[in-house]
Amino acid sequence: MSVDQKTVRHIARLARIAVRDDELEALEKELNGILDWVEQLGEVDVEGVEPMTSAVEVAMKMRDDVAVVQDLQKEVTRNAPGAEDGFYVVPKVVE
Amino acid sequence: MSELTKLTLAAARDALKKKEISAVELTGAYLAEMAAGTALNTYVTVTAEKSMEMAKASDARLAKGAGGALEGLPLGIKDLFCTKDVLTTASSHILDGFRPPYESTVTANLWRDGAVMLGKLNNDEFAMGSSNETSFYGPVVNPWRRKGDATRLVPGGSSGGSSAAVAAKLCLAATATDTGGSIRQPAAFTGTVGIKPTYGRCSRWGIVAFASSLDQAGPITRDVRDAAIMLTSMAGHDEKDTTSVDRPVPDYEAALGQGVKGLRVGIPKEYRVDGMPAEIDALWSRGIEWLKAAGAEIKEVSLPHTKYALPTYYIVAPAECSSNLARYDGVRYGLRVEGRDITDMYEKTRAAGFGAEVRRRVLMGTYVLSAGYYDAYYLKAQKVRTLIARDFAAAFADVDVLLTPTAPSAAFGIGEKTDDPLSMYLNDVFTVPVNLAGLPGISVPAGLSSDGLPLGLQLIGRTFDEETLLRAAYAVEQAADFKAAPEAWWKA
Q: Is 0.95 topped by the overall pTM?
């Protein structure tokens, strides 16, 4: 499988990264280089093999279902490029 | 070079306890070395004032005969670890100005034990790279040079600031992280020791995430004993990370020196890759002879899916990174580039904030997870990953540790491989399978290349058997008797 420039633009849109038209050709080439290379996994017979979901077998831990109340609004918003009264400020989303 | 900074972590610890030196003197000596070593570009942030405050507090505790296992020992922290109120950037433009309101669990463990922070160390942007050339803050320079050649070499990556700072004695030891080799390969390139523990041994909480099923923290140090001491403090269960394991942390230092008599050491035949330089092969053979002479039993083993590890990794890691890096949107922290609407703001912020390698991996990951391609790429890769882990499990039925080279070459020149992502990825051919299987691995300096650069041997252990791993590493270290050090050209 390989990607064309239209697909690169689509992926970039999904990833929310602006890509200039003059960058598309190089990105297409780079991504296809990597995709060609990973294509060799096609040789591996994975019939009946379970996909790995955890690198190390561990039982999922449970904790007590207790609410923890912390007032962190100031700490949480203090690194925001735009914040007011403890809220994040973003460009208008709803008209 | 200051006499004080020549001490290893273990020696400095003992000297502090006996009050032969003070934490303030030791910290001052390191801050002076750091100021004289800026040409190496190892630190992105120096916390001199905080360092001296922490050192004074350590001296006060030591004076009372109190203090933790790392009391008064000055460390460098990879800039991937969140440090409360101290700039944390992951060496990315997109985290401009980020001062975390919390401390990572691993660094909190180090401060609990009395360690002193010197500053934050450079790394590849979001730990994506094998040469520390993708950092927004510029490449780190390896303190080592080829014999009679002033070419600037890479320190390996992604923990290149950590490896270079330890090798140049700009800190006693450093924290690092390893997703596909980012502790072990830079250790090999700089003549230092680097251990990546078993997945789950150290908490990932507060470490900037790259690929969550592969990321693990570990130390880079001057020798195996120092690595054991550091790991004992860094490791441990943390309820804030559900993947951190709830088992006691052994005293790893106590495991050293038990010898390797009767230990079964596996030599994976698939690691003899095409085009491997003869001197790497020769180093590997010497390692085998050393362990044999120390009483270990050598066995050839087979890990048949080895050649599929790198392509598997370059599906799994980008997939997880594209998901993890979705959080950088210009809203909650770091850089924001204004746009005509919110989507335009996201797109412009991320275009300006991410470097070329990070962008490449986010796009790659987005593609392999997108509708219609998930099964062909991601699911397939996770199945091959199961086969890779099974290979190791089968080998460990017959042997206790595996011995391999750490990297297929010595350190290369800055700029030599930046135009070809695939040739850069191949650096991690011996380290990536270990992350995919979640196993512990360590790199130990074992010799010099013909042009005078350090080379490392890697040992791979069973899940949560870091003690046997360190014991074997200590035996290799004893036999290798690696004493070479780089000349301090950066002070000129």
A: yes
Q: Is the pLDDT of residue B1 over 60?
A: no
**Which pLDDT tens digit goes with each residue over B294-332?**
999 999 999 999 999 999 999 999 999 999 999 999 999
Residues A16-69: pLDDT tens digits?
Answer: 999 999 999 999 999 999 999 999 999 999 999 999 988 888 787 888 899 988
List the catalytic residues of B: 78, 158, 182
The domain total for chain A is 1
Q: Is A21 within a domain?
A: yes
Across the interface, do B367 and A11 touch by the CB < 8 Å criterion? yes
| ipTM confidence | 0.96
B387/A91 Cβ within 8 A: no
Stretch 325-384 of chain B: residues touching chain A, C-beta under 8 Å: 326, 329-336, 338-348, 350-351, 354, 359-360, 362-364, 366-367, 370, 373, 376-377, 379-384
Sign of the CA dihedral B297, B299, B305, B311? Answer: positive
Give the list of residues 6+ apart from residue B267 with CB closer than 8 angstroms, or none: B288, B298, B299, B300, B301, B402, B403, B404
Query: Is B104 part of a structural domain of the chain?
Result: yes
Which domain, by its residues, includes A26?
5-39
Q: How far is CA A49 from the centre of its chain?
A: 26
Mutate to test the interface with B, among A2, A17, A36 (most CBs of B within 10 A): A17
